[in-house]
Amino acid sequence: MDLGIKGKTAIVCGASKGLGRGCAEALAEAGVNLVINARTESTLIEAAEAISAKYGVSVTPVACDISTAEGQAKVLAACPTPDILVNNAGGPPPGMWSDWDRDDFIKALDANMLAPIALMKAVLPSMIEKGWGRVVNITSQSVKSPIAVLGLSNSARAGLTGYVGGTSRQVAPHGVNINNLLPGIHATDRAVSLDKGVSAAQGISMEEAAAQRMETIPARRYGTSAEFGAMCAFLCSQHAGYIVGQNILLDGGSVNSTM
Fold first, then answer.
1. Which of 24, 26, 187, 233 could be joined to 12 by an S-S link, Cβ 3.0–4.6 Å?
2. CA dihedral defined by 117, 151, 249, 139, rounded to 10 degrees?
3. Is beta strand 33-38 parallel, antiparallel or unpaired with respect to 247-250?
4. C-alpha angle 238/235/136, rounded to 5°?
């Protein structure tokens, strides 16, 4: 399928690996020029060179912490008027309700709520002026089904979801669409980290820990960054103009809900 976005420009955050990299690759395959962001410069440059060489598009790496005002300014200086924005940042650490204080919540909000909002506020005016734009926020399945040990993430991402619910309907008349992608477990560094924790806690191998987790997923496997990226690219395409303010699960059926 021709996504109809060849020659457009996208900012993709957290794009050096994992789900962000999957989104960047899928957009590049569709002919979109990229400005990609991550904190580690070496891996980001490697990703930029690999994506550009493979797909023949322009890829500009901007190494910074997107959760800070300085990082946001640096990315926007490289691409002030993108056609597409993909917001993505790693989630805060797990824990118990009694572990977290105000500073912990502020850090979570900065990374997973306030940074995406700041970037949207910066780029939406130019999208509205052009009469076309796409924003995809990578959140979590915990927005639909909260995960007890991820209280910081639950809180921040739920706040972003509420903001998008209203804002997406305000900008839709101008040809600008905002939607959220809600990943479950995918075969990324995050899954490795979770499986390591289970392996250590239960005294089992990494393979046994992964198999145990997969048994809880109806699809009986982890998702891939490529299939996640493909859905992101579709939401950014010319074919997704009637999808507004939605929270789309990519979780292999883990969240058992009809809504």
1. 24
2. 20
3. unpaired
4. 125
**How high is the pLDDT of residue 90?**
86
Structure tokens at 238: 């010319």
Instruction: Say which amino acid occupies 81.
Output: T
